[in-house]
Design a protein that fits this description.
Layout lengths: L4 H22 L8 H22 L5 H14 L14 H5 L11 E5 L4 E4 H4 L7 H15 L4 H12 L5 H6 L3 H19 L3 H5 L3 H4 L2 H8 L3
Helix pairs in contact: 1-2, 1-3, 2-3, 7-9, 7-12
Amino acid sequence: MLINPSTENLLLREVQPRLRNAIAHTVPSVGCDDEAELLQDGLAIALHLLNGTPRSRKNVTASNVAYYTIKYLRSGRRSTGYRKADPLHPASQLNGHCRVHSFEEHVAVDRSTDEPLTLGEMLPARDDDPATQACRRLDWNDLIQQLDAITKAVLLCLATCEELTGLVKRFRKSRSMIQNHKDRLARLIKAQLGDDILRQSSPFLFAVKPAAKIRRQAQII
């Protein structure tokens, strides 16, 4: 945008000093606002006001422009707009519609350790993130592809907390043979997924590998 010399002179020599003085005493700072940024926003707003005067055919003075610019800044308006629905925008905070809190702000005390809890520690989800869940699904999918029908059925019983004795009649195998398949499954899981995988997977088995999906795969012979 080109600025004619008269407008530039008015902004820098007459409007800017008025804005600098008023911002320091009357415009509230919100968040990371500082006087230099508010002055830049004020000059941009003032320039917009001056550009609109030819269309209205009104003569304005530096005092008029500075006065209305300060009113805009005090209400929370910035050169980028006026958004009450944006929680990070000054207008929303100045109108009391929202407040911004730091993740490091202390909000409670953990009674078990007597240590303060921050907002950031209370907000994260307790479950694994989607990437971790996807990787675990891939690991279990590869493992299940290597299992025979009996071992898949053993895994299904373990996942659904069913007794392994129900497999004796179904597969016409002895209880000790079913136990051998269970031991083989444990060795295979440890070898492919690590020694601590059983401890990690016990609370997450349904989330990682739903029982219905295990049942479908176990029935594939």
